[in-house]
Amino acid sequence: MTADSFHPPVRTLMGPGPSDVNPRILEALSRPTIGHLDPAFVAMMDEMKDLLRYAFRTGYELAMPVSAPGSAGMETCFVNLVSPGDTVVVCQNGVFGGRMKENVERCGATPVMVEDEWGRAVDANKVEDALKAHPEARVLAFVHAETSTGAISDASTLAELARRHDCLTIVDTVTSLGGSPLEVGGWGLDAVYSGTQKCLSCVPGLSPVTFSERAVEAVKARKTKVQSWFMDLNLVLGYWGGGGKRAYHHTAPVNTLYALHEALVILQEEGIEASWKRHRDNHLALRAGLEAMGLSFVVPEDERLPQLNAVGIPEGVDDAAVRARLLEDYSLEIGAGLGPMAGKIWRIGLMGFASNRRNVLSCLGALDAVLSDMGAPIESGVAVEAASRVFAG
Ligand SMILES: *Cc1c(COP(=O)(O)O)cnc(C)c1O
Question: Do residues 209 and 295 both lie within one domain?
Fold first, then answer.
């Protein structure tokens, strides 16, 4: 068998991730590979830690990317902070809270679930009740931005509750980092993980994490070994920890780290607050267009993520057929619903580099054309104008 080189089609990525990658980042990825202990590389790593602290808005000493996707960042937090026999309060209001539960169980610990409706924020009152009912709990875990539903939760309030009940927090910021206000230091979050392919608009495959001093102390005070050799921070920090010596742990994904460095430089150039504002502004225009068309949002307004717009699929419309037409005719990818929301919602991402005016207008235009052509019960020909009016102020 002979195969040809693979050349992917050019797409516009407006789903739940990966998002469109800035060409500057793709260029960084193609720079020459050097040794992962080369002094030039090590200097780049040190700079990257500072850039991650900037993005997370924290001064925590431990800030580094795990060499694997967001799911591995999640697992890194759980395996290091949860020991067999522990109790962990886990909030679930979508798919990713369910994965947290899995992680707790696989660590040999007991999850206490706080369930909220999918499409709503985590209810702090329920969390407080669970923490009161389980004084033995050591960790509170929750998702800041639930990508499966488009809902954001009040991480500041949840972290304060956790501290009051002597719990550390494990917080999923995969979709919030760079897209929604996130103050890891200011809110006192403890073990925080994210991903590269959402609002950082980098290639998939890395998971930035940061740990508070309290969380690092807890890892050091463990009585049992971390179950995962690869994710054991006591070992990983031999490479990432800094100081004079760096020991081989695993071969760092050198070029992917160039890409993340570039993504973080781009974020710093724009300014994190400007990035939050851009995500919000583009969301407001997209919202105006979608609502003019007659589509409605799943999440109540004050719990809505700007970077992930979950809208109901109109009655009688074939979800998969619409997404296939968008991909084939417009090279545009939007996301399907997950779990109980499959077939009921679309998830339109405006993440990172993809959060721009052109994408807002072209997505609305394409959706309008496809839905009208399929005879869907929508208001045709008004969406783009409604969004343009928002851009015009
Ligand atoms: C995408 C996502 C993850 C998983 O990240 P991967 O890079 O796909 O492993 C975890 N949590 C949330 C909230 C996500 O959106």
Answer: no
